Each structure stands twice: as C-alpha cells, then as structure tokens.
What does this fold into?
Amino acid sequence: MPKYLLKISYTTEGVKGVLAKGGTARKEAASAAAKSAGGSLEELYFAFGSTDAYCIGEFPDNASAAALALTVSSAGGATVETVALLTTDEIDRAAGKKVDYRPPGS
It folds into this structure.
C-alpha cells in the first residue's frame, strides 16, 4: 500500500485537546481514523515548530488519504498537509521513463 506523511498543525482548540487527554489519546484517535479510511497508522510523532505532529500511514489510494485529511481538517482542531511518499523502486522506475519536455525559452 502507498505510504503518506501527514503534517498536522493544531489550532488552539486542538492544542487544548492534546493537553487535556495527552499524546497517546491522539495517536489512538489517529489510528482509528486511518483504519476507518481503509488505511493504517504506522507512527505518530510530535514535534517542535510550525508542524505539531507527523503521521506516517498507509492508504490504499490518494482518495482514502485525502478523505482522512479532509475529515480531520474540517473538524477544526487541526489542519493537515498530506505528502505522498515514494519508494526508491518508484523513483528508479520514474528515472527510467523517457519524457519529452521543452524548457521555457527554447
């Protein structure tokens, strides 16, 4: 299954929820949400900076990953940026494909 990185930034209300229930509760909620979208949560990491948490998960397709991100963002406690992760094999296949391209100005 394809892997995705979800970058989570909490709103003030989201931070209050983390403070009230802790990180383990957030991981359990994220895991249940991923499962309901047809995927699975590999790990959730909290971080310093503009991104409060990073989730790595597997989903059957882009639509399933997007469904999770849309649902979380629409709830108002966090915003989610989703990044599709590519394996080295996928990059090798991409590097081997011939693409016709003409750069600007040529």
Observations:
- Residues 36 and 54 are 19 Å apart (CA to CA).
